Structure formats: structure tokens, C-alpha cells
Amino acid sequence: MKKGLVLEGGAMRGLFTAGIIDVMMEARIEPDGLIGVSAGAAFGCNYKSRQIGRAIRYNKAFAHDSRFCSWQSLLKSGDLYNAEFGYHVIPTKYDVFDNAAYDANPMEFIAVCTDVETGKAVYKSLPKVTPTTYDWIRASASMPLVSKVVELEGMKVLDGGVADSIPLEYFESIGYEKNLVILTQPDGYVKEHNKLMPLMRIALRKYPKMIEAMDQRHLMYNQQLAYVYQAESTGRALVIRPDEKLPIGHISHNPDEMQRVYDIGRQTGMKYIERIKAFFR
């Protein structure tokens, strides 16, 4: 029975997830596969490289660095989170990503992106580090309006959360029968229609299918929540959610705020760790 880990996105709310998965790594819990969306992919890749604490460490270290995340970067490069600095300089120079450990770990790792020309999800398996691995992870986390469209392997892609925010159903479809799902919104959350759709229509005017997907995203997300509840009720999934709305926005330049959210994740991970062990046994 294949055991999977499903990580939704949520930008800086993903530090809650980072705290949980660090606790899981410390407990030597080894899923057969991990599928991550947006921040779930950007932080979840550290599970495959077995780098406990890396996500919170570099986010805090570069919280005030304009090369990492800034309006200056957006104006100069078209990306709020600078693509070159964040996804090529930091992991190769400042907080080195362990490519060898990633390659040696047999755990399957899939990053979810959205094809802007079709509005459909792209599920990119990344078994080894290649010249495009970091860019696929970047694409998964490239939020519309504040990111350029990423061109990879003949596709144009952006944030995976637009097409498949909580890819539990997909993971089950490829053979993962028992899944731990980590959400970044509390129980009872209902996604509303995106208030920025007028701006989205302008920014994405070349991609009508992407606009359509953005316009329908709240419906897709709420349907996926219902699917998660159903999987949880039948015992196919163990679901971890924050107890209340996390005290952080999509973007943060406050290391203390980041640490608080990460610590909430760690506390939640410790609370659930025995249940996780029993579920994956």
C-alpha cells in the first residue's frame, strides 16, 4: 500500500506545513511519495533532500533582502520572488540544497503547475535534480499577477494551485492509497471568488483558459475540500489543519511572524506525530 503526503500551497502559510514535515523527518517517517502545490512544493522538496529546518532558515535569513522578495524585484524582473536569486543563488550558494541526498532518496516527488494555455494541471515528477528541477518548483509557486509566466519543456506554466489546489484525488489515481493531507486553512474555511479577477483578466488576457480557471478556482477548491472530508471520513486520508487562521499573509518580511507560524506547525506536528506513525504503519 503506497503511502503519500499531499501538501497544499498558501504562500507564507506554507511555513505551517514546513514545521509539521520537519517534525516528521525528525521522527524518520518516510512516505513513498510527496505531491506539493506552490509553497507545498517549494518547502516540500526539502523532505526529499532530508533538510530539516531549511525552509524556515532561508526565509528568515532573507526576509529583508530585496534580492529575494520585493517590489523592486517585481519591477525589475517581473517576479516578486526573484527567480534567479531565490531558485538558483540561494540553493547553490547561501543555503545549499542537498542535490545528492535528494537524488538518493527513492521517495517520489511531484510538483503541480498550471498550464496557462489550457488552464489544466501539470503534474511534473522530479525524481532527480536536473537543470530544470528548481524552475519547475519555482513555476509551481509562481503566483499570477506577481510572477512572469514560466516557459519549460515547451509549456507555459504558473501556480499549480489554480488548477489543482489539493491534489489528493490525483495522487489516489496514481496508486497512493493512504495519504496524509496537510492543509493551511482551518476547518470550516470556504474559499470565495477572487476579488482581483478584473486585474487577472488584464494581466492574463493572452490566456483565456487560464482566466477561466482563475474565475472558477473557488468552486474547484471547495469541491476539493469536500473530497478531502470524504476521504478523511472513510479513513483513506489523515488530514492536518491549523486550529485557526494562521497569523501571516501571503507575503511576509517579518522573521518573527514567520517563526510563529513555523512553530505552530511544529506544535501541531508533535500533537499528531503518533497518529501519523500509526496511520502509515
What does this structure look like?
The chain has 281 residues and is α/β, with parallel strands linked by helices. The protein has one domain. It contains twelve helices and eight strands. Strands 1, 2, 3, 4, 5, 6, 7 and 8 form an eight-stranded mixed β-sheet that branches. A hairpin with a 2-residue loop joins β5 and β6. α1 runs parallel beside α2, α1 packs across α12 and α3 packs antiparallel against α12. The longest helix is centred in the C-terminal third of the chain and has 26 residues. The chain is globular, with a radius of gyration of 17 Å. It starts with a strand and ends with a helix.
What is the molecular shape? globular
Low-confidence stretches: none
How much helical structure, as a percent, in the residues? 40-55%
Name the assembly state: single chain
Q: Main β-sheet, in a few words?
A: 8 strands, mixed
Helix and strand content put the structural class at alpha/beta
User: What is the radius of gyration computed over CA atoms, rounded to a whole number of angstroms?
Assistant: 17 Å
Number of strands: 8
| Straight-line distance between termini | 10 Å
- Written as H for each helix and E for each strand, in order along the chain, the element string is EHEHHHHHEEHEEHEHHHEH
Strand content: 15-25%
Number of H- or I-type helical stretches: 12
The whole-number mean of residue pLDDT values reads 97
Count of individual domains: 1
Protein name: Patatin family protein
InterPro entries: Acyl_Trfase/lysoPLipase, DUF6363, NTE, PNPLA_dom, YjjU-like
GO molecular function: hydrolase activity
Active site: 38 (nucleophile), 159 (proton acceptor)
